[in-house]
Amino acid sequence: MHDFFIKGHYEAFLDGEMCVLDDRGTSQFNEGIAFRSHCKSSESINRAMSEYPVTFVVFDILELDGTDLRAKPYEFRRKVLENLDVKHSNVQICEVFSDINDGWDKVTSRDGEGLILKHKNSIYREGYRSGNWKKVKNIKELDVSFDRFEVNNQGITVENQEGIRVLVAGRHQHEVRKLLTQKGEATLTIRHLGITKAGKLRQPTYMKVVN
Question: Which residues constitute the domain of residue 204?
Fold first, then answer.
């Protein structure tokens, strides 16, 4: 095992994600990555580089100097990753928590998206969903009033004055549509992953009718 604990020059195949992090270390998708993806001119790109610097957050290591580590347990791969002596202002190894409750409290206190739970003995299998890896999202609920809708192939999409749009499908669309048609307004409970600086809900989904 110690043969992998090297420092200096090496070649590694890493699993990670490009993120724009705020002062708390929380990934900002809409104000960061999504914003930068729309930059076209050299001026806007340079400005975004300064205002929204990108950090490559490393989750896992798959290969090191030509040696495949995918079949090694996660606990082993994590030790290899931590001993690579990564020192770069735009590269960061993700945090790990041995206590789920402590991790959850820390992530939710800074409005993070959630946690990925990995069994310490799990191997790395590309393109395969396993019970050894679970995503736990920091889902929030909010009551929102809507005053109009449009019909589509999936059901209806409701919208309000702030531009918040949510799809209501299945049998639930009929009650919502009736409220909007007869009363001109419907208050719905919406689940989401946070609110952007522009006041938009991240990944909003319909939950239930309030009135």
Answer: 140-209
